[in-house]
């Protein structure tokens, strides 16, 4: 499967799937930590192509205290952030071993849609695909699902850059 604008910074898709990745491996890939780490596990990852990850949405999440008392639902912006974090893992793991010392910076969101509320006690599935690459900038499409139903979807743009010294 080809992706428009293939570039050496992020290699073309391969058949060499990676996964699963546990929480320690997720934390090694992302700089995020509690309470902003929103990916718990990677089920599968095809470098240069796609990722399937999960987030266990617990009543213990701090955002449920105020969103909303008596009717807790996960804020839509955090669902998009979870998709962006999954995209970050995909982009970094697609660098062919050159991800050390790199960060993934979110640049834009397009066409975000929220289809259903995400309540505590569910396992949210995150599916993200690279749709375009140019040098260090990638475009992704992603969707979040609960019990097989799409609860949110968005397109995003991000870049891979060196970590500050």
From TrEMBL:
Compartment annotation: Cytoplasm
Catalyzed chemical reaction(s): a (3R)-hydroxyacyl-[ACP] = a (2E)-enoyl-[ACP] + H2O
Stored CDD domains: FabZ
Top-level taxonomy: Bacteria, Pseudomonadati, Pseudomonadota, Alphaproteobacteria, Sphingomonadales
Entry protein name: 3-hydroxyacyl-[acyl-carrier-protein] dehydratase FabZ
Cited Gene3D superfamilies: Hotdog Thioesterase (3.10.129.10)
Pfam families cross-referenced by the UniProt entry: FabA
Recorded family membership: Belongs to the thioester dehydratase family. FabZ subfamily.
Gene from which this protein is expressed: fabZ
GO CC aspect terms: cytoplasm; membrane
Active site per database record: 67
């Amino acid at each position: 499967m080809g992706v428009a604008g293939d570039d050496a910074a992020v290699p073309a898709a391969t058949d060499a799937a990676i996964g699963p990745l546990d929480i320690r491996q997720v934390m090694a890939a992302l700089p995020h930590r509690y309470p902003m780490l929103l990916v718990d596990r990677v089920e599968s990852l095809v470098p240069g192509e796609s990722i399937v990850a999960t987030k266990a949405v617990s009543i213990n999440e701090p955002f449920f205290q105020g969103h909303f008392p008596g009717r807790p639902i996960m804020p839509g912006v955090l669902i998009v952030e979870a998709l962006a974090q999954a995209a970050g893992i995909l982009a970094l793991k697609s660098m062919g071993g050159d991800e050390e010392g790199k960060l993934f910076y979110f640049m834009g969101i397009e066409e975000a849609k929220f289809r259903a509320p995400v309540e505590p006690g569910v396992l949210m599935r995150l599916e993200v695909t690279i749709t375009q690459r140019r040098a260090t900038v990638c475009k992704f499409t992603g969707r979040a699902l609960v019990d097989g139903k799409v609860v949110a979807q968005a397109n995003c743009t991000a870049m891979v850059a060196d970590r500050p010294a």
